[in-house]
Amino acid sequence: MAAAGVATAAGVGTDRALRARRKDRAVLRSADDPELEQRGSVVVADDGVPLYVEIDEPAGNSDNTDAKATTVLLVHGYAHSQAVWAQQRRDMHEAGYRVVCVDLRGHGRSGEGDDPSYTIAQLGRDLASVVEQAIPDGPVALVGHSMGGMALMALAEQRPELVRDRVVGVALISTSAGGLSEVNFGLGKQLGAVVHRLGPGAVARADRQQNAFNTARLLGRNVESALVHRYSFGGPVPKDVIRDLAEMIFGTRLHVIGAYLPTLMEHDRKAALSAFEGVETLIMHGTRDRMTPIAHGESIARSLPGAELVVVKRAGHVLPLETPEVVSAQLLAFLERAERSAQEQDTK
């Protein structure tokens, strides 16, 4: 089951500065935590959970003619943090965009909620709070990877008027609109079924022995790295990326990982995709994605005929890290299209 735990949580940034900052991270439980204020800002969710947010304002002052009108919201995936977007964040900021990055509840520097709050529906409400408090006006482009993309679907389901009135584009990377209960993680049909059956309970039981689990990790670093690589990437990546990835995965509390598993398996928001109709949409997927096989991206594309589907050959699940230049280039092109489309709509 350790393999399944690794398989269901992949992604951490490679940026050296972000890694150094992560070493002393603490799970935040109060919105006025001084450590939080030193690093970024707080958005308070509707149930009081503090969500850690960092905002990159466009370079220069308010007279900066290169600044874009659109704010980009980057949403990471399961057992990731906003660090997964290190290169894309930097590239978009240099291009003149205002960039907002959030750590989802129970992840990174954000606070923990009650276990029943670890649902994709709640993540949708959390993102609504982020938009309302950190992006109160102006056009918004939504970018989500893996569970982050699912959270964007929940936001659209709950707040279609927000999408209609303010969202100029949505990018869905390595994500799914439903059917994850049928995914076997590349383990074959029978073993995959066992993983699904034992998953949440096994992880929850392991959380009661977190210290012993951490000790066991030290004894099996090579195995752990092999598993992280298998379920995260489709080809060779630097060893330090794999190592940092493993640290992020197991830096997430086991009970948080376990609490999210049921909502991932139950996720079905195919109908919610209709809220994105008429909005510039980018879908990206790797051909070797074991977590959300490419059929999931293709299914989303069929539901949104106007969307652009970019297939990344021989790449796995964590595209922002495995092919960072490709993801950045595609996102920048997508943002240009989104802004151009929005301007054309305004002139009609």
UniProtKB/TrEMBL annotation:
A molecular function (GO) term: hydrolase activity
Keywords assigned: Hydrolase, Oxidoreductase, Peroxidase
Superkingdom as given in the UniProt entry: Bacteria
Cited Pfam families: Abhydrolase_1
InterPro entries with a match to the protein in the record: AB_hydrolase (IPR050471), AB_hydrolase_1 (IPR000073), AB_hydrolase_fold (IPR029058), Epox_hydrolase-like (IPR000639)
Domain AB hydrolase-1: 71-322
Name of protein: Alpha/beta fold hydrolase
